[in-house]
Design goal:
Blueprint lengths: L8 E10 L2 E11 L4 E5 L6 H9 L6 E6 L2 E2 L7 E4 L11 H5 L1 H5 L4 H14 L15 H13 L5 E5 L7 H17 L3 E5 L3 H7 L2 E5 L7 E6 L15 H25 L1
Parallel strand pairs: 3-8, 3-9, 6-7, 7-8
Antiparallel strand pairs: 1-2, 1-4, 4-5, 9-10
Helix pairs in contact: 4-5, 5-6, 7-8
Family: Belongs to the ABC transporter superfamily.
GO molecular function: ATP binding; ATP hydrolysis activity
Function: Involved in beta-(1-->2)glucan export. Transmembrane domains (TMD) form a pore in the inner membrane and the ATP-binding domain (NBD) is responsible for energy generation.
Length: about 260
């Protein structure tokens, strides 16, 4: 609508096929500027496929993809992508891994290191600048990967189950760090997860996908929990439990369909 800011991400009637296989059908997803959206759905429903479409790595068979109001052609240079498996180079230190994208952009190694050190401090790794990935715990490597993504200052951050391999205590720490960083410098964020607790804790809105193939959006729930959020106490509140039940009422039957199809 005229006079309103452009959506950061706008997928309209997107259809994604791999040969004769339809992965996603009639996908309509809108993400506002600075909005935090979590996407949940059964295994194999095309959640990661949606992120690959937003980055421009996949071109839909039909439908429109717009980034801040402009049609996406080629790669989305306004996005940063944090994968489930962190892509740290084992022969580079933490600070050099964080600054790697800056070097690719033409900055000197020293300039990149100077910018990387404050980012390591932001994710709680001050003093770990010279450590190599094998000298870091799983949670610490995730923090390096997060800093590596955010140092590039993308307007849109895409996260594909980034904390799924972590234990529950480390995951909660990562939630707190991510929320603090997002609160300080709000960017549009699409977060893929299987964990409803995680989705409710982090997001402004949770989008629910149907079972695949030909997955589609079956509903969405606005998360009304106030910000800033205390991740340690949030999940015991009545409002959190009510939101969980509302999302599961949309997701539960889709999980059962997916299980029946796979078995």
């Amino acid at each position: 609508m005229e006079g309103q800011p452009a959506l950061a991400v706008d997928l309209h009637d997107v259809l994604i096929r791999f040969g004769d296989f339809t992965a996603v059908k009639s996908m309509n997803l809108q993400v506002g500027d600075t909005e935090f959206v979590a996407v949940v759905g059964p295994t194999g429903c095309g959640k990661s496929t949606i992120l690959n479409t937003v980055t421009g790595l996949l071109k839909p068979a039909s439908g429109d993809v717009r980034i801040f109001g402009r049609p996406l052609t080629g790669l989305n240079d306004q996005s940063g992508y944090m994968l489930q498996q962190e892509g740290l180079l084992p022969w580079k230190t933490a600070q050099d891994n964080v600054g790697l994208g800056l070097v690719f952009q033409g900055k000197s190694v020293e300039q990149a290191r100077a910018q990387a050190r404050p980012w390591l401090a932001k994710v709680g790794l001050k003093g770990f600048e010279e450590r190599y990935p094998h000298q870091l715990s799983g949670g610490q490597r995730k923090r390096v990967a997060m800093a590596q993504t955010l140092i590039m200052e993308p307007r849109i951050v895409l996260m594909d189950e980034p904390f799924s391999a972590l234990d529950v205590h480390t995951r909660r720490l990562m939630h707190r760090i991510l929320l603090d960083l997002w609160q300080a410098e709000r960017r549009s964020l699409i977060f893929i997860t299987h964990d409803l607790d995680e989705a409710i804790t982090l997001a402004d809105r949770v989008v629910v996908m149907s079972a695949g193939p030909a997955s589609r959006m079956v509903g969405e729930v606005k998360i009304t929990l106030p910000r800033p959020r205390d991740v340690s106490a949030l999940q015991t509140t009545d409002e959190f439990v009510a939101l969980y039940r509302e999302i599961w009422s949309l997701l539960g039957s889709e999980v059962e369909k997916s299980y029946a199809t796979q078995n």
